Amino acid sequence: MAESNIRPDHGLSVRMMITIVGLMFLYIIIAVVMIQLGISVAVTTIFCGAMLYAQYFFSGKIAMFSMRAHEVTPEEEPELHRIVDNLCQLANMKKPKVGIAEMDLPNAFATGRNPNNAVVCVTRGIMHRLSTDELEAVLAHEISHVAHRDVAVMTIASGVGMLAGMVSRMAMWGAMLGGGGNSNDNNNGGNIVLLEIATMLVSMVVGFVAFLLTMSLSRYRELSADRAGAILIGKPQMLASALVRITGDMGKIPRTDLRKAEGMNAFFFAPALSGGGASTLFATHPSLQKRLDQLNKIERELNGQ
Amino acid sequence: MSLRTALFGKAKPVKPNLEYLLAASKSFDVLRDELQLVSSGVAGICFKALTSDSVVHTDEEIVEMLKIHPSALSTDELGFKWIVEGNTDPEALVTQLHKSASVLDENGIGSNMLCAVFAFKPLNPPGQGTLRMVYLFKRGTYYPFSPTGEDTRDNEFELRVQSFLGGALPLEQDLSKWMPLWGLPVN
């Protein structure tokens, strides 16, 4: 998107290149492991290729589906479309599709493999919690993700992790079943079990490295999108305010009526086991303080200090 | 929660915690001094009429056992009963509400009691902020609820209230339990 007004971020481009190279390397390790396991070269190539292809082309649909999001028309959500229209005009870029996820958790995301297939999506919860200006700032952040084309890299990255997980599981079952079945055939059986255990370990390491690469790129690209989005609309403090509302304590305060929650037995009986909740969703993001510090710095720069 | 409860889903009804209900009066001074909010003279108890293991009480029986005016008992659109009491003396209002809660508990309605609510208004109208302090009977904790419209609330103001009241009341630490009560009859 050379023609878009969203500043290219060279730091981000370099990191994305490094991550892609690293991930490709990991893909090759996985493929080699699969071939070592006795799976033919042709099957391995097709399998890895299909995996990448599917990840790349269906990532948008998968993300939308897992967030229970749906696309909305300008008639259904005029306000949301108006904000996105304005931002795209400011940024001089093609308007992405606009979606809404019907959940109370305040969140927003951008998905799609390239700017032509991009979707920016917000949850119902974030729309209720933020003012129009704050929502605009959040959407500017998401549109920057689209312009930076970093969604594609994240997609490939999560693909490696998934593939590594599958191979390690295959090897684990292979080792367990094979070990039991061939126990009288000491020579051969023992070797296969060892090989499968080794495979499992290698794919676990690969998966872990892919995870670390992805997380580190993810945190960087969030800061990068914060910066680009804040500069696009020239109001860093609006994004800061929105971040406090959705990632700080305020994001935890629910909007579901106490009496309705009671229907889920939450109050009349001993509380159910509760998980991590919203905080896990933000694990791929830099800390709130780091993001606010950066936005404050941009604010000072914009004021010429 | 015990392992057995987790496995078999059998949970006993929790006894209501009335112990900290009287502590509500400790918030009055802080709210007046720090946030210029005073009791609106109205407070209420919200409970569910039906349960599987106890007698179903008719409205007449509830009015009778609490010795209140029939108009003080109402049913909202979600099927919950509200006892709304008024008293211009905030200390007396707390005592009055605690007494009603105790009577409901003695009559087997205890495990159906959801919350008690105390309403506050600005000291100098119009002032800033509307506030309800909600007491959860099952958890024995309070949280602030500041409705600004039909289904909107002022989270910033609620967090400010929290920062001032921490020393005075047992506040609900889990913010995801600060559930709103839209359109509640305690104003």
Separation of the first and last Cα atoms of chain A: 31 Å
**How many helical stretches of chain B?**
5
Give the fraction of residues assigned to helices of chain B.
Answer: 25-40%
In terms of structural class, how would the helical and strand content of chain A be classed? mainly alpha
Helix/strand order of chain A:
HHEHEEEHHHHHHH
Strand order of the largest sheet of chain B: 2-3-1-4-5-6
Shape of chain A: elongated
Strands of the widest sheet of chain A, in order across it, are 1-2-4-3
- Rg of chain B computed from alpha carbons, rounded to a whole number of angstroms: 17 Å
Q: What multimeric state do the chains show?
A: heterodimer
Mean pLDDT of chain B, to the nearest integer, reads 84
Radius of gyration of chain A: 23 Å
**Would you list the SSEs of chain B in sequence order as H and E?**
HHEHEEHEEEH
The overall pLDDT of chain A, averaged over residues, is 76
DSSP, total strands of chain B: 6
Report the total helices of chain A. Answer: 10
